[in-house]
Hints:
Layout (H helix, E strand, L loop, with lengths): L20 E6 L3 E9 L7 E7 L2 E7 L6 H7 L6 E4 L13
Parallel strand pairs: 4-5
Antiparallel strand pairs: 1-2, 2-3, 3-4
Amino acid sequence: MLIRFPSLKVFLEPIDMGKEVVIDTIKGKGDISIRFIDANHCPGSSMIMITGPNGTVLHTGDFRYNGTKMLKEVGFTKIDYLYLDNTFCTPEEQFPC
Length: 97
């Protein structure tokens, strides 16, 4: 992305996969944190978990469920809002196994 838009470099900060980072503080309303979770899809793909005063959001994007490993990465966090990418989850789609 920086090759195409080098002027954005000042606005970007790399975040390690699985590390929870506070990205904003709302005065008097609590912190907002973000964590990237391995999506087990293409290399570098991730799900995004955002936690703040209004609850926890998990946005899956494209992901491939890989059982207990993924559940451990999400943790025992209560998810209040789940944005599940189910674009190709229809009987009409035929994918090779």
